[in-house]
Amino acid sequence: MSTAARSNWLRELIRKPYFWGVVAIFALLALNVLKDPNYLALSVNPVNGNLVGNVVDILRASAPILMIAVGMSLVIATGGIDLSVGSVMAVSGAVAMVFMKDAGQSGSLGVALGAIGLALLVSAVLGAINGVLVAYIGLQPFISTLIMMLAGRGIAKVITEGQNTSATNDPFRWIANGFVVGLPVVFLLAIVIVIIVGLVVRRSALGLMIEAIGINPKASRMAGIKPSGLLLTVYILSAVLAGIAGIMSVGTVMTVDVSRTGYQMELDAILAVVIGGTSLAGGKFSIGGAVVGALLIATLDKTIVFLGISSSATPAFKAIVIVVLCLLQSERVRSWFGQRRKPPQLKSDSTPVAPKQQKQEVTA
Fold first, then answer.
1. By Cβ atoms counted within 10 A, which residue in 83, 90, 108, 213 is the most buried?
2. How far apart are CA 247 and CA 307, in angstroms?
3. pLDDT tens digit string along 245-255?
């Protein structure tokens, strides 16, 4: 690769929004290493042979964020937003815990699969309600999902009778705490789901149709695209992915806390999507960018805990990092710095004579 081609490739890479997300991840890890040189060290648990370390913890914590970030990126690409993903997580976890508590049989795989299936079914119903309100009733996505955000917590409280609910089921717990080839099952499962969703939306016309709706719904309708059905599908998919995130969250401790499960996760999902380069105006999304954003949010959360930052100051610290990152992504900010670096041009005292004037002087 020539020097010019390498320079162009690097320039294009820097322009990609998720590039600065990757830089921020490495910067946070470097900050942690400065405090503890062994922060990135990995070891093998002699009892079960699984990998142990801070990096493994970050990967495990990123799995629920990955799920809701991917679903949120598709919703935002249509020009909408889903504020109900945190509440859907709580409902999904509540359904799963109550089902397993009532069924008993702590070692039954069938009970675990039944709890997962029922939780995802309820999540899909909640997503369908959002989709119907947006696509067929015509309500604003912000209002529709805000209603579900408020109602979802109430539904979860009704399911659990307002109490924290615990259950015991080894196969269900393995989903959140198990390991395969030394890596967390929950992270591997999240990656598989992300790959499947990415292949479906990018290897088919579905992704282009979703972006077309976000760019111009009327024009997409005239082009033969049916926005209503696609909107319904996207909101259902977002809710199902949120339901999976809820299963991952409650499976870690096998307890659902209706007031805390999924709390403010919709904000983390939106931040992850924006960091990944998905336009909040709609018409553009990046699954890979959402993955980078989710990993950054998980790394940032772990860094805050590791540095011992007060919980009262945590939102401010998180906001500073996100704002700096968004500024680095801004084309306007980068162009402004480029203009500041441009050397001043020297003005010549002599004005060059135009060729036409030179010809007239020779003729004279």
1. 90
2. 29
3. 999 999 988 99
